[in-house]
Amino acid sequence: MKLSVIGCGYLGAVHAASMAELGHDVIGIDIDQAKIDALAAGKAPFFEPGLPEILTSATATGRLRFSTDLADAAGSQVHFIAVGTPQKRGSYAADLTYVNAALEGLLPYLSDGDLVVGKSTVPVGTAADLAAKVAASGSGAMLAWNPEFLREGFAVQDTISPDRLVYGLPPEPAQAEASKALLDAVYESALGKDTPLVVTDYATAELVKVSANAFLATKISFINAMAEIAEVTGADVTQLSTAIGLDDRIGWKFLKAGVGFGGGCLPKDIRAFTARAEELGRGESVAFLKEVDAINLRRRQRVVDLAVEALGGQVNGKKIAVLGLAFKPHSDDIRDSPALDVAVQLKGRGANVVATDPEAIHTASRVHPQLTYEADPAAALQDADLVVLVTEWDEFRYMDPSWALPLVKTPTIIDGRNTLDATAWRAAGWTYISLGRP
Ligand code: UDX
């Protein structure tokens, strides 16, 4: 099929390349010339395992092309909108400027029977508004909502073999049938592998995405709240998590206590959800998400407080080695990263922060040039008064404590992800401090 993907950021670039990998003829469109040039040359503008390989192969075959001109969307049967919906400045609400601009720009190039497919995460009600604009254009095109559940670090795999597909279809039956047929053709490969499919209306499809992220965020903040209780009772939150996760109604996934969640989705999505619920007069229904956010932010503060305590209250001029900058491993994404937040806060207290990360130094140094960065963990650790692990890259998880010991000035480590082997670190001579554990 001929597809266009409007917006070649994280979601759009992965979607465009993955659809081409599945055999579709794809044009990726973005207003950022530098991004388009990089993608057209087969280069991923961010770190995502597997993406460079499929970009290179699909651009080489000509199945994947890139452009800055929306006119190049003409001739595609299905047009995905995959632009960002960032948090508005000074508010919790989502900023729909890019979504609206993408649709307005696309309208002149739509033909009868084309399908516009929303993939961006939007406040519930957006799809109906956009569908009205498509209808008013008189093009005969239709609109569907098809949320995306990809995880950074597994984005290609999650797009090519999703764990479920959700179609939010138009209310009019003939349009719903035609839209479904087009989406089925796009996702033929996944549907052939018996991927579960939920066919629903616009509002439900929009809510599936935000409620899934709200649930995941709540699960993490729940266990982090238990970590706070563990800290004043002498209990061990990692054992608590293991024990409650054994109940398969609860499960272990997303039950790992630590410095909390970050990234481009969970924090902004729960905030946008509360803002939208308030607009709808149902603020109280999701008021708990404000607590989820507050617990999450408190965990960052806890790591900073533990660092200050470990340094005997004297932070000024002390060298702190920060292991990790990305919001999670296998990513160079520093959006709302707890790791970077901790590093910046410690720097703000006068510490000489030297941070290291296998992938995120280039993104972090652009936003926070005041920190010192070292690509080599040994250089970051050299003469450190304190070590703080905040992103659980394998390089840090499996670091040999005996190797690290002679490098530092004071062998104290704060494990902000409860990921190290505490016994091994203590046996090697370290003072080991973690979250929610004695
Ligand atoms: C998330 C959703 O998982 C995905 O379905 C959605 O499409 C986009 O948002 P992503 O932002 O890539 O994906 O990250 P995810 O793997 O969900 O991790 C989010 C954050 O939670 C990370 O900062 C991670 O470190 C943290 N986390 C995760 C925990 O602190 N504890 C856990 O147990 C799990």
Detailed description of the structure:
The protein is built from 18 helices and 14 strands. By secondary structure, the protein is α/β, with parallel strands linked by helices. The strands form 3 sheets. The protein has a 6-stranded parallel beta sheet, sandwiched between helices. Strands 11-10-9-12-13-14 form a 6-stranded parallel beta sheet. Strands 7-8 form a two-stranded parallel sheet. The chain binds uridine-5'-diphosphate-xylopyranose. Uridine-5'-diphosphate-xylopyranose binds next to α9.
Q: By CATH's scheme, which homologous superfamily of the largest domain applies?
A: NAD(P)-binding Rossmann-like Domain
**CATH class placement of the largest domain:** Alpha Beta
Strand order of the largest sheet: 3-2-1-4-5-6
Q: CATH topology of the largest domain, anyone? A: Rossmann fold
Helix content: 40-55%
Q: How many strand elements?
A: 14
Whole-number mean pLDDT: 97
Q: What gross morphology would you assign?
A: globular
Total helices: the number is: 18
Instruction: Summarize the main sheet.
Output: 6 strands, parallel
What integer value in Å does the Rg equal?
23 Å
Uncertain runs are none
How does the helix and strand content classify structurally?
alpha/beta
Distance between the termini: 58 Å
Structurally, the number of domains stands at 2
Second-tier CATH architecture of the largest domain: 3-Layer(aba) Sandwich
- The fraction of residues assigned to DSSP E strands is 5-15%
Bound molecules: uridine-5'-diphosphate-xylopyranose
